[in-house]
Amino acid sequence: MLYAWLFWVLAKWNKGSLSRGERLDYIDPVHCMRQKLPILPIEEYPSNDTLSIHISGIFFAWHRHFIWLREKALREECGYNGYQPYWIRALSADDLFASPLIDGSDTSLSGDGDRPDDYESTITLLPTNVTIPNGKGGGCVINGPFANTTLHLPDLDAAPGDVFPENAFVYTPRCLTRNLNSFMSRYLASQKDVNRLLSSPNITTLQRNIDVSVWPTLNEAGIMGPHAAAHMQLGRAMDYFWTAPQEPTFMLHHAMVDRVWILWQEKDLKNRQYALNGTSTILNVPTTPEVDLDTELAWGPLSMTKMLQDLMSNKANHFCYKYGN
């Protein structure tokens, strides 16, 4: 199986890491993948696993294999010779606009969105009703390699968080939108938040910490953790968990989530390598059984079914990789 023998290092998309050529070498295959025809005809779209793979016992492992599948596709279908980069968000937490990943340059994944006519200076976070400063954009991305990119799934911002939307696969061409929010990254996706994740004493706490945050500056608790905040700090397309993989930064964000999981595991491999908690439904619905190492995970036509035990180590089975510093 691909990479079963190869030990490879993922590099971060930050200053001093990927060269200009390496960034361009990644951007071109991403464009290539966007131009590929779908594997299945429209009437046979695979089921959407959103309500299984978030805030559940399979979140980390499912996304680890998803990242691997994406890199495999970039290599086999679009001639990519590198590895999946990751984004250390904490390095640009105080100023998202300074990040080489989203600064709008020709070696970035494009920058902020244009400011729409209905722009408002503040936004309200639900369900806590906390009001914070808005970003500076919110409209279509108009600079960098992904300017004027068309997305093909609907805007599902108003969709419920626990019911699969009936219109999830309706062909709805629209522009890639962004709304970079440095206020959110500063308070919810900083190195302090990463340290809190790595200090989690067990898998249950790690799962809670990555999705639920304490925000002492606003005297509020339970707003969102650094996983959700990293989605929301980019706004719009990246913020809707039904359609977020359409956003070019998605894989770099989730590679960073995977890196945090590995760093946490390596602090106590004996007790953490195969640590599990929760079910295979969002919010761990009590009526669904607890996952174990024999629990099977699926990715539709993208992959064979895998058991959780096959995905818990980055150095076993079909995985053989590590992350750079």
TrEMBL record:
Drop me one GO molecular function for this one: metal ion binding
Kindly indicate whether the keyword Oxidoreductase belongs to this entry.
yes
Recorded hits in Gene3D superfamilies, A to Z, give:
Di-copper center containing domain from catechol oxidase (1.10.1280.10)
- Its signal peptide is none
Residues forming the Tyrosinase copper-binding domain are 46-267
Arranged from A to Z, the UniProt key words for this protein are: Copper, Metal-binding, Oxidoreductase
Q: Does the keyword Oxidoreductase apply?
A: yes
Question: Which PANTHER family does this one have?
Answer: N-ACETYL-6-HYDROXYTRYPTOPHAN OXIDASE IVOB-RELATED, TYROSINASE FAMILY MEMBER
Q: What is the name listed in the Swiss-Prot or TrEMBL entry for this protein?
A: Tyrosinase copper-binding domain-containing protein
